[in-house]
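Closing statement on the manganese (II) ion sub-project.
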Amino acid sequence: MALLSTIDFPHLIIECEGFAHKRIDLHSHTKCSDGGLTPETLVDRAVNYQIDVLAITDHDTVAGFDIAQKHITDKKLPLTLISGIEISTAWQGFEIHIVGLNIDTNNTDLQHLISQQQKAREDRALAMGDKLIKCGFDNIYHDAKALAGDGSITRAHFAKVLYQQGHVSTMQQAFDKYIGKKGSKGQRAYVKPNWCTIEEAVDVIHSAGGSAVMAHPIRYDLTSKWLRRLIVQFSEAKGDGLEVVLPQMNADQRQKMLNYCLEYNLHASMGSDFHYPNKWSDLGRNLTMPVGAKPIWAQWS
Ligand code: AMP
Ligand code: MN
Ligand code: MN
Ligand code: MN
C-alpha cells in the first residue's frame, strides 16, 4: 500500500499555515473494535458531515481500513481516508493509548504486534470472564465475545453486556464497580492486561512508515508531574505528536497540550474518538487546529 503524501491533499498544507479550515478527524472507531458503526456506515456519516479527512483508529486492529477504502472507491465518495490504529500500551501501571497514523497496514512488524495485542486481549477477556463469574455473573465472556464478533474484544463489550443484562444501570457503572481500574489494584473484575510498551508501539508505527501520536493525554487521570514524565518518555521514545484537540477539552487544557507540543517539539493531532452517535460528541465536531501548532499531517510528505 502506498503511503499518503501531502501532495495527495494540498488543501491540508494550507490548513497547516492556518488558512481556510478543512474538516479533519484523526481518531475514530468502528465495529472492528468497540465502535457502533460498520466501516461503511462510519464513512457515510463522515461524508454526510462534510468531513474531508478521516482516520479510522480501532483498538489494536487495522481491519476496518480496507473495507472503508473499498466503500469510498466503489461509491466515489469525496473523503480521504487515513490508515490508523490505537495501540494500548502499559506504562507505570497506567494504560496509555498510542495512535498510529498513515501506516502501511500490511507491514509485517505491525501485523506481528497486532497478533500479540490480540492475544493479550483474548487472555484478559477470559480472565475477566472468570472474575465476573466470581461476582455472580455467568457467561459474560461468551456474550461479550459474541458481541465483538470478528473484531477486537474490549472492556466496552463487557460493559455493554453487563448493562444489557441489568447487572449495572449504565456502562460507566460497569467500569466503576467491576472492570475499571481506579487505584492500584482496580475493581473486582479488573485484570491487568499484558500490553506492549510505549517504545514498542512507537517503533512498530515507525517501521510501518507512520506517525505515532499519544491519544487523549488529558484522560489518564495523571497529575501534571506524571503527565510531564509521560510526555518526556514518549518524546524520548521518538513519539511524533500529541492529540491536542478533542471535543471535550476546554480552552485551558488545549493550551496546556499545545505548550507541551512546543516545549518538546512534538506535532499536534486532533480527533473526536468517535465510537457511536451520542449527544456529547460526533465526528469532526469542535475540531480546529490551534494557531502555532505543527499539524501531524505536515510529516506526511
Ligand atoms: P480496553 O481497550 O479493552 O481496555 O477497553 C477500553 C474502552 O472502553 C475504551 O476505549 C472506551 O471506549 C471504553 N470505556 C468507556 N468507559 C470507560 C472507562 N470509564 N474507562 C475505560 N474505558 C472506558
Ligand atoms: Mn474505545
Ligand atoms: Mn483511547
Ligand atoms: Mn479511541
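The longest strand covers residues 80-91. With this model delivered, the sub-project is considered complete and its resources will be redirected to Aim 3.
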